[in-house]
Structures are given as C-alpha cells and as structure tokens.
C-alpha cells in the first residue's frame, strides 16, 4: 500500500513538473520571423558565443537572402580564439547590394548589424565607408568601423508593414567598400514598443501617439546598479552595460540586489521588455535618520544633436519593506517628468513588480541627455526615497526617415555614380570598327573602278572578322 502511495506521489510530482515545464516553454518568447545570418560563411550553421545558430549566407539555404551578385566573401586568416565565430568572416560589397527577408509577422522587428574589422591581404578596412538603408530608412550614413579590437553592434527596432525587409549596403564612394559580419532580423513582441509616450520639453509635458510605427536606434541600454548582461541573459538577446560611466552624482546613494522572484504582471513590464537581471538590481536613495535627503541621483548620456529620443526608465521596488512607502520624482533633461511616482499603486499593490515609463525629448543642442531621480514632497524618513533599475535611450527617426546623417534614402541611392564612362569605351570602339569597315569597303569599290593595286588599309581584313569584332565590342557595352 505504501509503495502504491509513493508511486502515486511520484507520478503526481512528475506530472506537475512536466506541466510547469510546458507552461514555462509555452510562455517563452518564440518569434515568428527569426533570421540569423553569418555573412561570408559557407557553413550551414554557426554557433555564436551565446549558443545561437547563424546560417552562412554562402550556404545553399542562406544564399537566398543575398540578392546581389559580385560580392566578396572574406575570412579572417588569424581569428582570435576568444571572439565569436560570426566575426571570423565578412561579406564585402564594392557596389550597392541587398539582403531581403520575407516578413510573415508585420509590425516591429529587431534588426541588429554586426561589424568587426580583421586583417586581410585583399582589403584595407581603413578604406571602408558606407551607408546602410532598410525599407526607406537611413540606418547608417558614411559609417566606418574604427575599433579593431571589439565588434560594433548596431541595434534597431523598425516597423515593417510589407512582405519584405530589404537591407541595402552601399559604399559611400566607388573607391570605398561596405562590409558586414552578421545580420539579425527578429519579429519583436507586441508590447516591446508602446504607441504612446510622454513628450517632455521646456514648454510643456503632454501625451503623444504614433511611436510604434517609427524606426528606433538603441543608443544606450543600461543596467543601473548591476553588472553587464549579455544576450545569454536576455530573452531578446540584448546587451546591457553597467551604469558607472554615466553616473554623475552618487553621494548618499547605494546599490541594492534582490534574490527573490520578480513578479511580472499583465499590463506591466514583461520579461521581454526587461529581463530579471535588470529588475533585481538598482541604485537608490534612502534616508537613515529623521530627515529626507536633499539630493538627486543623476546620469548623463552623450547624444547626437537634431533628433528626438525615446527615454525608457525601468523601475521595480525591490528595496521597500512594505507597500506605500516609496514616493519620488523623475526628471528628464532637468524637467520634472513624473511627480510623486508611487510604484505600489501602479503595480497593483505588489512589491518587486516591474514597471517602465516612456518619455520623448528633443535634443536641445547640448549634446547631452540627462536623467535624474530624487525625493518628492511626499517622501518619508526612514524609507527608500528614490530608485532606478534600468535606462534605455533610443533615437527616433526624423520626418525623412533618417537615423543618421542629413540625406534621405532615395537621394543616397541616386548618388551612386553610374558607369557611363565604362559603357562608353566599348561603344566608341564599336563605332571606330564600323568607320574602318566602311572606309575599307569604300576603298575596295573605288579600287575596283579605278583598277588601283594599292590601299591605305590592308585588304586582308575580311568582312566576317570586322563583324565579329563589332559584335564582340557591342556585347561588352
């Protein structure tokens, strides 16, 4: 009897474990469109440092994404054993070239471009300078890769409302070339980009709409108070950097780490919006006596002038000992963006439940974007008086669809020099041959009439040879 009970208990435990595993797998993010391309590689799959499988664009399956011919495969003759295999090869373009990806799930897509220079006997990477376009957006303009040690990863979120996403690489001049090491195109979760945000400027604070159908470039993704996070720690395969280099005032502040479970809720931040490792660490201001500290925690981020920026701030109260004790102010570019923020009310009276707020700001010419948190007039002594877990800063495309430079995609494409001179040379050659042939025939006719025995041009040039020469020259036009 005891054996039967034990078996029944074991069976129920196994059933519950499998059910929980099934729920866990079912809730995991599984994108409809998921393309990982290892550029310049002939391997069917390449496993990167984060255990993802990239398809070589020279393999039978991967070659269907590369629409252009006359591109060049390049391999690193002496790759670093510490670098990811996706940086051991590259695809080089000496003329405008395209990759096309079929889109089954229309909406926001994550687009990541990987660039890493390496030594090559055929190409000097100092000569690389190029533009990158995607479905009418200018992602990169006159882009160069300066760092020879570390890869550059350019991270975008692009609204795709067509059957294809086409990414174009174009050298800035005929003397330059473009290259790329790897491409990621992934359909994003529906809640990753909210359509509504709070516009913050020196004149007013108001709600704005239409963000969802924009193109965004992630300029900074920062884990406040915590360590660097790699794609292995993020369900959307993102990198998060520590906040130390951006923190401008930390006197009177501290860090906090949380080992409990982060309580994600419907309507709040999901695990795809921000992973556990962002929400289980933070920087905070806490009063240790009867008075509330009169200080703010501030971060500064260098940005490019002339654009709007989406500032996403991540909050999770992992420090309060009870609900209803934390009230604080949020400032963006020195402007009060959120007054008396009460995380307990926003998260339906739950501690350790994440929340994020989106603000849009205009860069006002200073080249620096600032974020601050600090006590409000509702803050209390002997409690936590401000907290911040993460910061994301994303550049918003301007009215011409530009994220870099001042020239729209159509003008960039038209700027590529046409090969008029190259086509003209064989045409001139063909015309010359026709003139010679006409002159020879004319001399023969004149010679036949006058019974002359000489000619300025050798008479052993046959009509057949002349025609074949003309056809050969014309075929090169």
UniProtKB/TrEMBL annotation:
<keyword id="KW-0472">Membrane</keyword>
<dbReference type="Pfam" id="PF12819">
    <property type="entry name" value="Malectin_like"/>
</dbReference>
<dbReference type="InterPro" id="IPR045272">
    <property type="entry name" value="ANXUR1/2-like"/>
</dbReference>
<keyword id="KW-0418">Kinase</keyword>
<keyword id="KW-1133">Transmembrane helix</keyword>
<protein>
    <submittedName>
        <fullName>Receptor-like protein kinase</fullName>
    </submittedName>
</protein>
<dbReference type="GO" id="GO:0005524">
    <property type="term" value="F:ATP binding"/>
</dbReference>
<keyword id="KW-0808">Transferase</keyword>
<dbReference type="GO" id="GO:0016020">
    <property type="term" value="C:membrane"/>
</dbReference>
<feature type="domain" description="Malectin-like">
    <location>
        <begin position="37"/>
        <end position="396"/>
    </location>
</feature>
<dbReference type="InterPro" id="IPR024788">
    <property type="entry name" value="Malectin-like_Carb-bd_dom"/>
</dbReference>
<keyword id="KW-0812">Transmembrane</keyword>
<keyword id="KW-0547">Nucleotide-binding</keyword>
<keyword id="KW-0723">Serine/threonine-protein kinase</keyword>
<feature type="transmembrane region" description="Helical">
    <location>
        <begin position="421"/>
        <end position="441"/>
    </location>
</feature>
<keyword id="KW-0325">Glycoprotein</keyword>
<feature type="signal peptide">
    <location>
        <begin position="1"/>
        <end position="26"/>
    </location>
</feature>
<keyword id="KW-0732">Signal</keyword>
<dbReference type="GO" id="GO:0004714">
    <property type="term" value="F:transmembrane receptor protein tyrosine kinase activity"/>
</dbReference>
<dbReference type="GO" id="GO:0004674">
    <property type="term" value="F:protein serine/threonine kinase activity"/>
</dbReference>
<keyword id="KW-0067">ATP-binding</keyword>
<keyword id="KW-0675">Receptor</keyword>
């Amino acid at each position: 009897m005891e054996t039967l009970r034990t078996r029944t208990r074991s069976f129920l435990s196994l059933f519950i474990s499998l059910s929980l595993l099934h729920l866990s797998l079912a809730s995991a993010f599984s994108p409809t469109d998921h393309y990982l391309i290892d550029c310049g590689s002939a391997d069917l799959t390449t496993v990167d440092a984060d255990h993802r499988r990239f398809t070589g664009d020279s393999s039978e399956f991967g070659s269907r994404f590369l629409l252009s011919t006359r591109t060049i495969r390049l391999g690193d003759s002496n790759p670093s054993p510490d670098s990811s295999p996706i940086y051991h090869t590259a695809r080089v373009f000496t003329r405008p070239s395209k990759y096309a990806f079929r889109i089954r799930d229309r909406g926001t897509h994550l687009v990541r471009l990987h660039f890493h220079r390496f030594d090559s006997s055929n190409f000097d990477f100092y000569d690389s300078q190029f533009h990158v376009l995607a479905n009418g957006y200018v992602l990169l303009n006159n882009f160069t890769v300066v760092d020879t040690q570390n890869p550059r990863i350019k991270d975008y979120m692009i609204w795709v409302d067509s059957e294809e996403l086409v990414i174009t690489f174009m050298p800035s001049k005929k003397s330059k070339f473009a290259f790329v090491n790897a491409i990621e195109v992934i359909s994003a979760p529906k809640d990753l980009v909210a359509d509504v945000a709070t516009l913050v400027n020196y004149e007013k604070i108001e709600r704005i709409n239409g963000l969802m159908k924009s193109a965004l470039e992630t300029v900074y993704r920062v884990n406040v108070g915590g360590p660097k996070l790699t794609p292995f720690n993020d369900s959307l395969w993102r990198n998060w950097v520590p906040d130390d280099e951006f923190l401008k005032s930390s006197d009177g502040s501290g860090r906090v780490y949380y080992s409990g479970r982060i309580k994600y809720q419907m309507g709040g931040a999901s695990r795809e919006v921000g992973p556990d490792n962002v929400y289980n660490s933070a920087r905070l201001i806490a009063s240790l006596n009867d008075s509330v500290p009169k200080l703010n925690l501030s971060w500064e981020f260098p940005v490019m002038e002339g654009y709007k920026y989406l500032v996403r701030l991540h909050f999770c109260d992992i420090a309060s000992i009870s609900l209803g004790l934390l009230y604080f102010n949020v400032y963006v570019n020195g402007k009060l963006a959120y007054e008396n923020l009460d995380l307990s009310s926003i998260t339906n009276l739950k501690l350790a439940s994440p929340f994020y707020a989106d603000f849009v700001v205009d860069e006002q010419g200073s080249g620096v974007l600032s974020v601050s948190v600090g006590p409000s007039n509702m803050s209390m002594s002997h409690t936590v008086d401000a907290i911040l877990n993460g910061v994301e800063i994303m550049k918003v495309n301007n009215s011409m669809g530009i994220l870099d430079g001042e020239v729209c995609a159509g003008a960039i494409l038209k700027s590529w020099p046409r090969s008029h001179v190259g086509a003209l040379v064989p045409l001139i050659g063909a015309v010359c041959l026709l003139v010679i042939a006409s002159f020879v025939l004319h001399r023969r006719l004149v010679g036949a009439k006058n019974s002359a025995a000489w000619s300025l041009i050798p008479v052993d040039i046959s009509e057949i040879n002349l025609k074949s020469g003309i056809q050969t020259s014309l075929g090169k036009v």
